[in-house]
């Protein structure tokens, strides 16, 4: 089924005309021939709003009794049954009355959308979860009713209904927003002109951000190379250099001055291991300053950054200016200028960073000696092989052996080592094989040409081999990243249980971080471990700081970087619902790509926690309903026999010869049956019933049950000799409840029977009643609620007992009218 479309009419506050605009749009939809129904509408007594709703079908509200009050709510079931093309639902952030299916109205709207029904709704900016703190600072009022930002992202259309603060205050004074004293109080408090201006800017920002996301999605969906300068968007390239931190701060200041969004991007071209800590610190700073941190991989950093900028609709790239002249314009800044095209490039002079001078560039890369040893070893091995092969293939052909050695070196050595090996191999061939030997002189022009060709070809082949190897490693990293993200997302979306979902996902997180991982969830008295190894007091303190600050802390971050773990908050809306703690054994998480994966897992885990909390709330509501039903039924069941006993006792006191003993006995039996059923069902559902299996005869068991009732309507037709193994006491109780239920709801005979087929013994209880509705095996479900007596527990107990003794249970209608309960047990 295609989901419905959601259109939200957004305003800065009440009174801007959201509901009026929504109803006008709904009238247009109805005039186009599509059916429209109003699920909920708040007119607030405004005549104009009531008038524009004329002609639209309104669904009557559902009345809910709560603590003696009658509350009206939207009738969701009526809307779903009617299935209009468009449902009008006012006040999206409303909290439903207790006893409703969903605690929030936006959840009702989500169910309507899932049913394929389009929805028009209204929302004020102060009710958006991510804007709640900002609104509280502006107005001094903390909003209790909020809508998660995911609902805004889900909306197909977000329409801003805007008026100036002056116009809104005029409407307020004219009584078009609130009436009487309420309007006067609102004008002095919430509707102050400064508040309205700030709220208006907030609403405009929400719509602008949504429009910016829509533009970027359009560019990606249609493979359009940006930028479209609908709004400034900045990108700063981040590497391991200490200059990067000042570049990040500069970009943040520029973004604030331009009111622009910004990205901190890292192009992974295989940074050395010792630079990962600096890179992780730089990216952590960017995150803390509000950047959208993005990592990409590629052979050329400039090409990767420009490609990312085009995909993300970036209008300006900020990079550090390279000092000095480099041959062939190979510096990053010069390549960015050449490749950027219509994207502006801002190059910042490094003199701004005198407090953080970059370390001098080393003449040789880290661990150069390891590559140097490989070069000497390969040169010696290749030369020895060439000396052995020269008598067979000639001195000129041995250059192919050297070429093979250089090509193989490209698979695992750095580029400088490959080029060095190519040059020294050429000199070794000249020294060992050309005339005059053991000198670097050459007499033949063919040898000179061969030497030059060898140096060029071997250098190019080795360089390309190393380049392809780096590209293959980057592709493998991208593949690993995509596969890991897919597996994490799949696990966390499949699971509805928090503990099992986390238990399935944590091994992948541990593989990603090359260490141990744990999940802690927020509780009233602090963080509680959910899964993973126990944490030390020091590690727990890092997690507690991350939970309070709402920021990542620990290893590879700028906060508590010496800690042995990295703690990442699991955010649900504006609050921290838990902490993901990873205790890495290696520097794997210093890689921005892996850190992005870890952040993605944290986001998915937060969604799982939110889903688990929603399910827990639903269960609490169901438990509340069950408790209420229990109290209602028990109070009803106990009231009648208690009244009979009380009246009987008074009559005996007044007249000891009065014949009321039978009534007292019946009332006491009824009380005993009620309490026995309650205790028995609670023990059965708690798994406290102990089985005592024995060999049973079907005919004997049914005769014993029939004898309990002393009712001529109960007949037993069971052949002797049908034996099975079960707990006779539990099975007796189960069949007894079935017979009592049949006697209560039929005036005809109740037939108990037994038969054998296919290695099974079937016990049946058949009646000629009117049949039973669905759900009769649920607790407190009675076949006829109008009839006195009964808690509706008998069939539920029977079902539990039959399942406990290993039997199969079914109910079907009887030919000619009535019902047949059948219990199937393996024959002895």
Please characterize this protein's 3D structure.
With 828 residues, this protein is of the alpha/beta class. It contains 24 helices and 25 strands. Mean pLDDT is 77; it is low at 352-363 and 773-794. The strands form six sheets. A six-stranded parallel β-sheet has the order 3-2-6-7-1-8, sandwiched between helices. Strands 11-10-9-12-13 form a five-stranded parallel β-sheet, with helices on both faces.
SS field, number of helical segments: 24
Termini separation comes to 51 Å
Largest sheet: 6 strands, parallel
* Broad structural category: alpha/beta
Tell me the fraction of residues in β-strands, as a range.
Answer: 15-25%
- Please state the CA-atom Rg, rounded to the nearest Å: 39 Å
The low-confidence runs, each spanning 5 or more residues with pLDDT under 50, are 352-363, 773-794
Q: Find the count of extended strands (DSSP E, 2+ residues).
A: 25
Write a concise keyword list for the protein shown above:
828 residues, 6-stranded parallel β-sheet, 25 strands
Give the helices and strands, then pairings.
Blueprint: E1 6-11, H1 18-31, E2 36-40, H2 47-52, E3 57-58, E4 62-66, E5 69-73, H3 76-82, E6 86-89, H4 105-114, E7 118-124, H5 132-139, H6 149-154, E8 157-160, H7 165-173, H8 180-188, H9 193-221, E9 233-237, H10 243-258, E10 261-268, H11 276-288, E11 292-297, H12 301-311, E12 316-320, H13 332-339, E13 344-348, H14 368-393, H15 398-409, H16 415-433, H17 445-494, H18 498-513, E14 515-523, E15 526-531, H19 537-549, E16 553-554, E17 566-572, E18 575-584, H20 592-654, H21 661-685, E19 694-697, H22 698-707, E20 714-717, E21 723-726, H23 728-744, E22 750-757, E23 760-766, H24 794-804, E24 808-813, E25 819-826
Parallel strand pairs: 1-7, 1-8, 2-3, 2-6, 6-7, 9-10, 9-12, 10-11, 12-13, 20-22
Antiparallel strand pairs: 4-5, 14-15, 14-18, 16-17, 17-18, 19-21, 22-23, 23-25, 24-25
């Amino acid at each position: 089924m295609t989901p419905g479309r959601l259109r939200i009419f957004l305003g800065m506050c009440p009174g801007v005309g959201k509901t009026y605009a929504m109803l006008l749009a709904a009238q247009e939809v109805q005039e186009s021939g599509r059916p429209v129904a109003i699920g909920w509408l708040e007119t607030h007594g405004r005549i104009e709003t009531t008038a524009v709703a004329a002609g639209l079908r309104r669904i009557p509200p559902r009345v809910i009794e709560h603590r003696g009050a009658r509350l009206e709510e939207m009738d969701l079931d009526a809307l779903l049954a009617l299935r209009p093309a468009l449902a009008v639902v006012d006040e999206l952030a409303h909290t439903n009355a207790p006893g409703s299916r969903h605690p929030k109205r936006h959840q009702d709207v989500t169910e309507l959308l899932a049913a394929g029904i389009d929805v028009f709704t209204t929302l004020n900016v102060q009710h958006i979860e991510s804007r709640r703190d900002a609104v509280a600072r502006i107005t001094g009022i903390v909003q209790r009713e909020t809508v998660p930002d995911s609902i805004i992202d889900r909306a197909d259309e977000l329409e801003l209904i805007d008026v100036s603060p002056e116009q809104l205050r005029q409407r307020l004074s004219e009584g078009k927003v609130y009436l009487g004293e309420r309007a006067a109080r609102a004008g002095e408090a919430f509707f102050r002109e400064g508040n309205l201006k700030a709220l208006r800017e907030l609403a405009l920002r929400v719509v602008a951000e949504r429009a910016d996301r829509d533009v970027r999605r359009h560019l990606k969906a249609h493979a359009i190379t940006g930028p479209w300068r609908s709004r400034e968007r900045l990108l700063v390239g981040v590497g391991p250099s200490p200059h990067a931190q000042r570049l990040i701060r500069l970009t943040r200041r520029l973004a604030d001055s331009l009111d622009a969004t910004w990205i901190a991007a890292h192009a992974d071209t295989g940074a050395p291991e010792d630079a990962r800590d600096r890179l992780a610190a730089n990216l952590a700073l960017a995150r803390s300053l509000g950047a959208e941190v993005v990592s990409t991989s590629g052979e050329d950093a400039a090409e990767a950054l420009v490609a990312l900028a085009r995909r993300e609709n970036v209008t300006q790239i900020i990079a550090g200016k390279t000092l000095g002249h480099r041959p062939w314009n190979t510096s990053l800044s010069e390549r960015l200028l050449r490749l950027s095209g219509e994207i502006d490039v801002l190059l910042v002079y490094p003199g701004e960073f005198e407090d953080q001078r970059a370390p001098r560039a080393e003449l040789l890369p880290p661990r150069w000696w390891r590559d140097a040893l490989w070069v000497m070893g390969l040169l010696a091995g290749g030369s020895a092989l060439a000396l052995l092969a020269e008598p067979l293939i000639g001195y000129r052909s041995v250059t192919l052996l050297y070429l093979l050695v250089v090509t193989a070196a490209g698979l695992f050595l750095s580029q400088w080592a490959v080029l060095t090996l190519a040059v020294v191999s050429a000199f070794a061939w000249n020294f060992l094989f050309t005339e005059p030997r053991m000198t670097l002189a050459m007499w033949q022009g063919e040898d000179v040409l061969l030497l030059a060709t060898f140096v060029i070809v071997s250098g190019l082949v080795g360089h390309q081999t190393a380049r392809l190897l780096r590209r293959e490693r980057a592709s493998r990293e991208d593949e690993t990243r995509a596969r890991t993200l897919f597996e994490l997302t799949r696990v966390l979306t499949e699971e509805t249980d928090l503990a099992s979902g986390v238990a399935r996902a944590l091994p992948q997180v541990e593989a990603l971080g090359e260490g141990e991982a744990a999940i802690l969830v927020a509780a009233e008295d602090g963080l509680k471990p959910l899964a993973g190894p126990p944490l030390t007091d020091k590690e727990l303190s890092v997690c507690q700081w991350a939970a309070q600050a709402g920021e990542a802390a620990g290893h590879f971050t700028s906060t508590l970087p010496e800690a042995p773990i990295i703690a990442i908050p699991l955010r649900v809306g504006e609050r921290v619902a838990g902490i993901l703690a990873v205790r890495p054994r290696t520097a794997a998480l210093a890689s921005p790509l892996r850190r992005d994966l870890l952040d993605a897992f944290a986001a998915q885990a937060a969604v799982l926690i939110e889903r688990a909390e929603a399910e827990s709330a639903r269960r609490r509501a169901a438990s509340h309903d069950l408790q209420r039903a229990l109290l209602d039924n028990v109070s009803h069941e106990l009231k009648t026999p208690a009244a009979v006993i009380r009246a009987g006792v008074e009559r005996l006191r007044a007249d000891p010869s009065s014949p009321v003993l039978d009534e007292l006995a019946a009332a006491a039996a009824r009380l005993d049956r009620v309490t026995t059923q309650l205790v028995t069902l609670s023990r059965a559902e708690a798994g406290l019933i102990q089985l005592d299996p024995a060999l049973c005869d079907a005919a004997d068991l049914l005769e014993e049950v029939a004898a309990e009732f002393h009712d001529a309507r109960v007949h037993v037709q069971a052949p002797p000799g049908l034996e099975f193994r079960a707990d006779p006491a539990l099975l007796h109780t189960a069949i007894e409840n079935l017979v009592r239920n049949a006697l209560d709801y039929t005036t005809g005979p109740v037939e108990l029977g037994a038969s054998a087929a296919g290695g099974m013994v079937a016990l049946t209880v058949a009646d000629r009643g009117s049949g039973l509705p669905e759900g009769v095996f649920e607790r407190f479900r009675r076949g006829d609620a109008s009839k006195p007596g009964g808690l509706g527990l008998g069939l539920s107990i029977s079902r539990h007992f039959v399942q406990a003794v290993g039997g199969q249970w079914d109910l079907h209608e009887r030919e000619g009218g009535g019902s047949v309960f059948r219990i199937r047990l393996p024959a002895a």
